[in-house]
Amino acid sequence: MTAAPPDLDGQDQGPPCPVPHEQRPLEEYRQLTRSWFFAWPAATATSLVRPLAISWLLLWPLASLVAGGSVALRHAAPALLPLVGALGALGLPLLLLLRQWLGWTYVARRLRSERVAYEESGWYDGQIWEKPLQWRQQDLLVLRHQVDPVIRRLQQAFGVLAALLVVGFGLCQAL
Questions:
Q1: Which residues pair with 129 in a beta bridge?
Q2: Does 161 reside within a domain?
Q3: Is the pLDDT of residue 3 over 60?
Q4: Where in the sequence is the domain holding 126, given as residue range(s)?
Q5: What are phi and psi of 88, to 5 degrees?
Q6: Residue 15 lies in a domain
Q7: How confident is the model at residue 14 (pLDDT cuts 50, 70, 90)?
Q8: What is the 3-state secondary structure (H, E, C) of 111-153?
Q9: What's the CA gap between 85 and 62, in Å, rounded?
Q10: Listed residue (50, 49, 19, 22) closest to 34, CA to CA
């Protein structure tokens, strides 16, 4: 007689899993994809760019207003003030991207790991449990086909943001 294979939620016929359901890496991935914030880069590149662009556009007038308080900018070239405001407004998309990056890389690390660290009672009684082979295989598949593309999309967004910052600072120096 053969052992029954585990189902998609990791419930198998073998020894019971001591890791609470919400702390299992696959469940953490599911929670991340259901979150409105972390789902931005999971769908398409435009679903990530749109909220970042909106946050930049909303912050640009405020950043320009703050930059207008600078005595040096008031006496500089007229085009410099909106440019400095645009550069300052890139701070919010940068922070949003950083938070996205931290969340997705945390889940990727949990999926890649052969062991699962977890809390049984919430009193910081950290335990470690070794994943069964079936869990590892499933986690690696999800990592390679679902999480890695999201992380690559976030890396590309960081690259574009860095390029915008470099070009913007260069223009500021040229003016």
A1: 116
A2: yes
A3: no
A4: 21-174
A5: -65, -35
A6: no
A7: low
A8: HHCCEEEECCCCCCCCEEEECCHHHHHHHHHHHHHHHHHHHHH
A9: 8
A10: 22
